[in-house]
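Predict both folds.
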Amino acid sequence: MVNGWRARAAVLLLAGVVLTAAARLRGAEYDEQYTLFLTAGTPRPAWPDRVMTAAEVVALQTGTVGPAAIAQALRATDVHPPLYFWAAAAWRGLVADGLFATRMLSVGFSLASLALVGVIARRVGVPGALAMLLTLGCYGFAYTGIVARGFALANLFTLMGIACVISDWPRRQVYCGAIGGLLLGAATFTNYLAAFVAVAAIAGFATADCMRPRIGRSVGMLAGFAVALPVDAWFYLAQRGSRAGQFPPFALWASLRRLAQYGMANLVGGLPLYVDDSLRPAFSIALTGLATTLLILVAVRWQRIATPPARRLLALAVAAPPVGLLALGLAFDSTPIELRYLAFATPFAALLLSGAINSLPRGTRLPVTLTVLAVQALALGGLMTRPETMQPAQATARAAATLVGDGVVLLPFGNDGVGVVGAFAREATPALPFLVIRRDTPTAAILARVAAYHRVTLALLAQDADSRMIATHLMEIFATPNWRRVSDGFNVATYERICVGASDVLRGIHDRETRPAAGPDPVAPRRIRTAACFAARQSADPCDVAPRGADAGEAFHGDLPGPARLRLLAEAAGDARPCALRQEGDGEGHDRGDGRHGP
C-alpha cells in the first residue's frame, strides 16, 4: 500500500470533507449546550415561568467571556477542566459563536490528530496512510472529533505527547520526556479521563527504558506530567459533588457488557440499528464476527507489528480506557462507561490493526483492508445521516413545530437545565413557543401556565433521569377527561382541551363589561350574551367556545368529539334567556328536571 506523504495528505483531505460534513449534518447534542452557554457567560440560565421562544434561548449562547469567568463557573457548576473551554471561547470570539463554527474547532483538532497518527505510524514502522484511514473510519474517533466538547483536543495533546517522546526513541533524552509529559498533562487538563492513556503511555515508556536500562526519558515524562496534577486537583476537588447520580450504580457484568457493546460501536458505530428488526440479530452477529476476527488477527500477527516497545505501548494505550473506567466505576459505585470515553483508544487500536494488516501476504492484504474500510464507511454514513445515531433534539423540534399549531410546547428542564433546553432550542424554529417544566413544578402550576392555550405539545425528551421523570409526569397530567390526545410525532404528543359531561360547559365567554383587558377569550355573541355568561360563571372547569353566529342549531363548540355540541335552541334564537343553550350527544345534556335546559 502506498505510504508516502502524498497518500497521507490525501487521507487528510478526505478526513476534512468527512468530518466537516458530519459537523454540519448532525443535530445539536445535549453536552454541547454547556459549552455554548458557559463560553457565552450563562452556564446555568434561570429559565422563567413564562412562555419563551427558541430565539431567546439561542441569544443566551451568543458572545464570549474571559478565562477567569469560565474557570469560576466550571468550579461551581460542572466536572470538567477548563483548557478546552478556554480554547473554544477564544475561537468563538475570533470566528463565530454558532454551533457549527464551534464544532469546526474540534474538526481542526481531529485533523491534526490524524496527521500525528501518520507521524507515529512512520516512526514505529506501520503504514501511515492506512493507520490514518482506519483511525478516521472508527466511529468513536469521528464522533468525538466533531462535537463541541474537549475530546478532540485531549486526543490531540495525547498524540502530541507520545509523538514527542517517541521521536527520539534511541537516545532517550530527558527533555523529550519532559515535553511529552507536559503534553500528556495538558490532555488531562482538557479531559480528566485522558489520564488513562497518559498513565499507560508513561508505563509503556518506563518499561522500555528500564529494560535498556536507561530511564532519563521516563523520569522526564513523570516530571512533566506531574505539573498538571495540582491544577487538575484544584478544579476537581471543587467539582466532585456537582453531578451526583449522573451514572447508574456499578455492576460488574453489566459494565463488561457495556464495554463490549461500546467497544464494537467505536469500530462500526450503530450499523445494526439501520436494518429491519428481523435482520438485526444476524447483522449484529456478523459484525461481532468481524470485530473478533480483527482482534484475532492482531493477536496472531503480534510479533510482526512494529517493534516490541512500540506494540507494547500501543496495547497499553488500547487497554487503558476500558480498564480505567472499570476501576473508576468500582471506586465510586457508578457506571461511567460511554462510547466517547472509550474513543481515546481508537488511534492506538488503528495503529495496531494497520501493522497487523500490513503483515499479511499481499494477496490477502487488500481484501481485508477493503472489507474493514467498507464497513467503516457505512458506519460514517450513518453518523452523518441516520437519526438512530443522533440525539433526539433535531427530530423532536421538527415534529413539535409541525404539530404545535397555535398552542405551546412543554419541554423538560432535565438534569442541568441546559442540555435538553439548549439542544431543542438550537434545532427549533426561532419563533417556536415553549415552557420549561421543572421536576418539582406542581400539577396545578403547569395547568395554570397553559390555561390560555387549547392545544399543548409535549416534547418527551427523556435524556437523563430528571427529564424522564418530567416526561412521565406530563403524560399523566394530560391523560384526563378534559384533554384529548390528537396527534403524535417523533418524541412528541399533542393534546387539545375538550368538554366532557355537565360540569364542563364554557370557557372565557365574557360580556363586554367583564372581559379582561388582555384576555385571549372572545366576547359572547350579542344575542346569547346573558345565557353564555351565566353558563360560564356556573361552570367548574369550563372549556373553549368559538364566537360564532347565533342562528338556531348553530354549533358553538368545535372541539367536542362525535355529535356532542353546544347548540342554540330554536325557540331561543335571538333571545337572551339563561335556558338558551344545551349540550347534545353526551347523554347528559343540562336538563334540570323541569324540561328546561341550562348549564
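Second protein follows, with its predicted C-alpha cells after the sequence.
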Amino acid sequence: MSPRTLAFPIVAIAVVALLVYLRPAPETPPSDPGSTEGPGPVAGSDDLGPVPFRFLHVLPLQTPPPNVLRTSVPPADRVARWFDRLLWASPRIVSATQEQLASLDPPEQARYVDRFEEEFRRDPGRTVPAIAPLGGFEVEKAHSLLLEAATHSDNRVRMEATRALALVDSDAAAARLEKLLDDPIENVRRSALRALTEMSSDAALAALEAYAERNPEEGIKHALAKLGADADDPSVIPVLRRHVDRTDDGRFYALDGLARFGDGNALDRLYELIDLPDPGVVKRAIQSLLQAPPELLDVDRVEGLVTNRYPDVRALAAVLFSRMAGAEGIEKREKVFELLGRQIGDLDMRVRYPAYQGLFDAGRTEVTEKFLRVLPSASEFALHVPVEVLTKVTGDERALEPILARLETEADPRDRAILLTGVAHLGRPEGIPVLLETIRAASEDEPFDGNRQPLSQTAALHVGKFGVEVQEALLEIAEDDELTPLARMRALDALRAVPGADALDEVLEIALDPTQPREVRIAAIETLPHLDGDLYEVLSEGIREFTDVELARRAQVVLFDYS
C-alpha cells in the first residue's frame, strides 16, 4: 500500500479525535439541596473542563465567560454545612465553627451527632476536628460516642475525646479518663490529667487522688491543683496544709486553696515567699494572695512590693493593692491608698495603670482631676498618659468633651491618633461623628500617626466598637462615589469589626458592581465573611456574575474558606 493511501485514514482518525476533544464538557447538575455531603463539583469554562471545587481557585484561569464559576446549591441544613466545614477548613475556620456550634438547639445537636457517628464509623481519624463540640451537647448519644472515641487506637482521636469529656463532667467520663492516665502516649496521659482537674465531680477528684498515690511526685500536683482551685469545703484544709512546704509548684496549688479560706498559716507563708529574691516565686505568691479575702490581708507585710526591682512584680502588686483598696472592712485603708499613690509615679506604665484603676474604683477620683486639667494642652509625650488613664483605665466620661474640643483644632497626626483612640475607648455615641469624618477624609497623601499608619486606618480600627449603630453610616461611605476609593475601603474595613453587622446584600452589591473601582470591589469581597447571614447561599449565587478573573479568584477563595 502506498504512503498516500495510508495517509487518508490517519488524517480522518485525527480529525475525529480532535472533534471529540473539543466537544463542550457537560454541566454538572446541582446537588440535592438536602444532601449532607457538601457542595458538588463546579463546572468551569469550556477551556478548563470540570474541576473539583476546592482546587479551582489555584488554577490559572484564562479570560472567563460571564459565568466563569458555577457552583452547586448548598445544603439547607446548617448543621451538615458546619460539620463539613470542620472536616475541610483551615484551623482558623475550624475554631470559629466550633464556637458557632454552641448555639445549636437540641434537635440540631442530635442531627450533628448522627452525622458525626456516620463519618466516625467510616473514618475515625478524619473526624478529629469534629469531636470537641460533642462535649457541650445535651445528647446522650454524644457522650456515648466520646466514651468510645476515648478508647480508639488512634491517639489523636483519644486526645481530642479527653478534652471533650472534661465538659461532660460525669462519673462515666471520669472513670474513662482515669483509665487514660495509664495511656502509652504521654500527650494523651497529660490531656486526661488536665481534663480531670477541670471537672467538678467527686469521681474526678477520686481519680486524681488515686493517681497521686501511684505517682506521688507528678500526681499530687494535679490533685492539689484540683483541690486548690475548687476549695469550698473546709475539710480539705488539713490535706492542703500538709503540702505548703513542698519545693515544687504543688505548694502554690495548696496555698491557693488555703488562701481562699483565709488560712492564717498559709498567709504567713506567702508573706515569707514575697520577700524572696526570685521574681518567679514572688509573682506566684502574689497570685495566691489574690485568692484570699482582701480584708484579711496585712498591708504592712506587703508594703515592700512597692520597691521591688522587677516591674512585672510591682505591676502584680498594684493589682493586689487595688483589690485591697476596694474591699469593705480592710484596716489601714489610707495606707493602701498611699501605696497606690506611690505606684502612679512608677516609671513603668504596667504599674501605673492598675494603680490608677484601683484608686478610681475605690472612689478616689481626685487622681483624674489633674489629667482633666492638662488634657487640653498636653504635648504628644504627655498626652498619651492622660488620655489612656481617663478613657481606657478609668473610663471617665468627663474626658470626652475636652478630647472632642481638642480634635477640632489639633493638626498633629500623632496627637490626633491618640485622641481618636480615646474617643473609641469611652464608647459614647457623641464620639462617632469624628471617627466617621476621619474615614471620609482618607486619601493617598494623608498623614501618618505615631504608629506609622494613616489616621483613617486608626479610625477604622476603632469605630466598630460602637456596634450596629454605625453600620448604616459606614455603608453610606462605602457606596459614596464622590469619596476616594481609599475612604470607601476604610469604611468596608471598619464594617468587618462591627459585631452582628447584617449588611451582606449591600456589600455583595458593591462587589458585583462593575462600575466600582477594582480595589473597592476587592475590599467588599474580603468583608463578606465577617457579616451575618448565609454567605454560602448569597455568594455562590452571585459569584457567577464576576467577569474579572482576579475578582472571581478572590470570591472563590472567600467562599472556600467559609464553606
